[in-house]
Amino acid sequence: MLLEYLAIAVLIVLATVVALIAIGLGGLFGPKKKTVNKSMPYESGMMPIGPGTRRMPVRYYLIGVLFILFDIEVVFFLPWAIVFRQLGWFGLIEMVVFVAILLVGYVYAWKKGALEWE
Amino acid sequence: MPPINFNDIEVLLPLIILVIWACLLLLVDLFIPKKHKWLTALLAAFGLALTLGFTLSQLGSESNGFCATGKPSICMVVLDGFSVLVNALLLLTGLLGVALAYGYLKRMGIERGEYYTLMLFSISGMMLMAQASDLIIVFLALELLSLPLYVLSAFARSNSDSQEAGLKYFLLGAFSSGFILYGIALVYGATGSTSLSQIFEIASVGTSSLLLTIGAALILVGLGFKVAAVPFHMWTPDVYQGAPTPVTAFMTAGAKIAGFAALLRVFGSAFPNLSEDITPILWALSAATMIVGNLLAIAQTNIKRMLAYSSIAHTGYILMAFVPYGNPEVAPVSIAAGLFYLFAYTITNFGAWGVVIALEQKESKGLQISDYAGLRRKYPVLAGAMTVFMFSLIGFPPTLGMVGKFYLFRAVLSGGYTGLAIIGVVTSLVSAFYYLRVVVNMYMFAGEPKTDNEFWLRFTIAGAALVTVVFSLVPQGLFAWASRAVLKLF
Amino acid sequence: MVPQDYYIALSAILFTIGALGVLIRRNALIIFMSIEMMLNAANLAFVTFANTYQHLNGRIIAFFVIAVAAAEVAVGLALIVAIFKSKHSIDVDQMSSLKG
Asked: Domains in chain A, ordered, with CATH?
């Protein structure tokens, strides 16, 4: 029932209220002095260099897409692993075929140089 | 432990061979030097021919594959006369596609081996579509055929038109896949099954449910996008114009055949009970597609765009055959006529696109209809072939197009859809206007068209022209084959 | 337990938002995200119905859809990146070199 979630709802409300009170009190009574250094973005104590939104090299995108493609396949491994014993040889052959197809893609990407960083 | 069932493998044998061949070709192509990409094309064609041989060896056999344990009526794929006929047609499309592409890719400087691999993958998706007997297989096949086509549309990477075509095709194709998937989800919700035969059984027992009707309508919208039926046709002219021409030729034929195969499988086997709701929608779609496609084609000056609208119009004609799909007395003849028309359109269409490819120059030059002026004087054979194709697209004798339209209109009339047949005839007359404009340009005006001498391209064009004329004189055998193929569906 | 109808309603709402997003937004990436949302709405419907009928089909289908969506991401992003490289924009309204 929805009531089971009541405790979590109470916790969320309480946590929010406590946090708001703490920040609100600090803002009300604390001293406020604005300096240049204070309004700078925080970068581990160093002077900030360059614009905040840095552009990523397009190489990251290639690696990312390859990662997604091969990573998603795990979705099929998990249920397979659970019923592996019931499936027996049939399941093993199926998975070998599946992995072989993945390997074709992997070899293709490798040979085309998609995995090289430079 | 489920036993390894060799019957399952037999049902999908041609498809399995094609997929293995495509995977191997992808790897082999890595080791073929850039100068010898003809080898990749040859290997791809050989793979297609091999698969065609295996497909034809399945003629007459009927079987189900990948069935649920203990329930032989719930299966994922099916092998029957219809699937064999459609698969053979698709493989023929592939062979023609390879023949058209080889010289073109070289001439335009976009020759890469992946072209052929992608084509093989796309064809395997189309073949799976023709054999699907479960909605989820329909969806997977649809994606398998579409994803390579998106890439192929954008294959001329440096050409911004091609990029644009690829992106537009991708966005609208994925959009339509979303509709189909949600439709499948609703149908699954209404019946508790995705197997086409199960859906039919469950739906014929209970009262018609709203969820099922909405699901079927969403699937219809999605497939309407894929076969480019009005009002879901907006992407078609842009994509067909921007994509490399051999890809367009392949898409207009292959994707259409696969889309109609899916339409027939899904609606013919799962939703005959909904025909009261669906038939009027199909009627309207077909009429709108014929009218809009033909009218908009008149205004075009670019031949690729004109043929794109012509392909929309022909979708309308083929859709006519599907209107009486729920009536088991009329449907077999009608669907057989539709299949025959698909064959006629495929051959003619490849021929016409072949001529377009022959005259296309770099940077999308030579694509205006006015560029065809003077073709008769310089290249009389090419002009003659183009005339045959244009006549066939209109439906003039003695061409396949005429025979196809004859069968089609006869079937539609015997089904009692006189209004639709009248619209078909009138729009065919209208279409003569823009097809004949190409012929007039070739024969009456002076000009200096240019073309290269590419053997396989010439061979394909000449072969298509020959088949268009010769088969129109002896169409009975083919029509009988189509009739036999669809008989078991109803 | 939350009633099944709520899930289906949520999935219908997600699907509608996705479809509207495709029609209204002009940025190719956002259109693409909307399409993904449509697919995931269908996934939610599949899983819910599978729960209603108490069989596995719907859940397995959801796996397939996830894999297909990943393949679509790869193709779609590649196309969008290629276009951005040459046009420096992925606004679909600027894709207008093809018309007539």
From this structure: 2-111 (1.20.58.1610)
